[in-house]
What we know:
The protein is mainly alpha-helical. Helix content is 48%, strand content 6%. The strands form three sheets. It has a two-stranded antiparallel sheet. The radius of gyration is 22 Å and the shape is globular. 28% of the residues are buried. The N terminus is likely disordered.
Amino acid sequence: MSAPTTTSGRRRARTLRTDRWWLPPLGTALGLSAFVIYGLVRTFMNQWYWAPEQHYLAPFFSPCLSEACVPGASHLGTPFPDLAPWIPPPVFVLPFVLGFRLTCYYYRKAYYRAFWASPPACAVTEPHRRYTGESRFPLILQNSHRYFFYTALLVAAVLTYDTVLAFQGVNGGFGIGLGTLLMVVNVVLLWAYTLSCHSCRHLIGGRINHFSKHPVRYRMWTWVSGLNGRHMSLAWASLISVALVDLYVMLVAAGAFPDPRLIN
């Protein structure tokens, strides 16, 4: 605890808290930093993202829309040319995915506290002299979250399609591997996180004066509101699941170990 100082006749301290209030923001900073570092390494590694035998496509490279994609990885075609070796396929999609995460209401709170110390914790003075809110550049861009929500829906739909394709057997027909199950868990968590978004809740229940006149939207709003209460947990769970599935596909594609098959 910082020693109190006298300012304008009043005694002030950074905080009077005696607990380890700095642990949550530190853990958040380490967790988010690890994900960002892994994402950058994987993106510019630009290999081992498609396992053709198992029909697994790493989520960091989905959808693969560039002519630079390896054969079989482009489920939706290749509308973008192969620009350069240092411009990997994910650069066409990741900005929209990251835009949704970065402007998310929970993640704002997480990295504002962890990286900007604004504020670092409840009842702890922040080091900044003044607070300008999100009315100026670049923080005014946070207001674009509602638009990134629609792109997140498209990405979640594409990853669901990738998961359906992963139910193919090694020798044709129907099949299930460990990677298939991991991809199913991942898309479920991604859909839960996306639909628990505050923008989704407002889209469904916003601008309604009488819920009794809109029973279907009210039921959907109630369901989404329940998910919204778990938005923080779903944000972290989906973030971890995306990285783990991507890592798993990378290892299988690189031949580090065979994918355990449950069926075929």
